[in-house]
């Protein structure tokens, strides 16, 4: 069974790119375009990994991450930040990899494979 990855990003172009890339490498995907939608999808879909953008219009990735970590069912889901935002916000735990946009495809695939194993 393919590992499921939740993409949380407000940019439809980035979401489509990541979905195509991940599906081409035998991952299953689902997507959310906001913090609130991302939390709901994470609860419903129980993904094996979350790719998280930090800068979104309603509440940013930091709030998504903080709220996700409060929920027993999804708190241990690995997260990889994929964002154009600079340094990692302090709310993110050490060990959460950050990949800058534009995305280095090789680095992303390697990081996903390491975190989802």
UniProtKB/TrEMBL annotation:
<protein>
    <submittedName>
        <fullName>Response regulator</fullName>
    </submittedName>
</protein>
<keyword id="KW-0597">Phosphoprotein</keyword>
<dbReference type="InterPro" id="IPR050595">
    <property type="entry name" value="Bact_response_regulator"/>
</dbReference>
<dbReference type="InterPro" id="IPR001789">
    <property type="entry name" value="Sig_transdc_resp-reg_receiver"/>
</dbReference>
<dbReference type="InterPro" id="IPR011006">
    <property type="entry name" value="CheY-like_superfamily"/>
</dbReference>
<feature type="domain" description="Response regulatory">
    <location>
        <begin position="4"/>
        <end position="116"/>
    </location>
</feature>
<dbReference type="GO" id="GO:0000160">
    <property type="term" value="P:phosphorelay signal transduction system"/>
</dbReference>
<feature type="modified residue" description="4-aspartylphosphate">
    <location>
        <position position="53"/>
    </location>
</feature>
<dbReference type="Pfam" id="PF00072">
    <property type="entry name" value="Response_reg"/>
</dbReference>
């Amino acid at each position: 069974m393919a590992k499921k990855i939740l993409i949380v990003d407000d940019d439809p172009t980035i979401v489509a790119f990541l979905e195509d890339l991940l599906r081409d490498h035998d991952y299953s995907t689902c997507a959310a375009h906001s913090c609130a939608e991302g939390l709901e999808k994470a609860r419903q879909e129980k993904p094996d990994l979350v790719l998280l953008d930090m800068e979104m219009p309603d509440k940013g990735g930091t709030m998504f991450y903080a709220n996700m970590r409060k929920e027993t069912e999804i708190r241990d889901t690995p997260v990889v930040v994929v964002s154009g935002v600079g340094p990692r916000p302090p709310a993110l735990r050490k060990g959460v990899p950050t990949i800058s946009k534009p995305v280095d495809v090789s680095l992303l695939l390697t990081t996903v494979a390491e975190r989802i194993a």
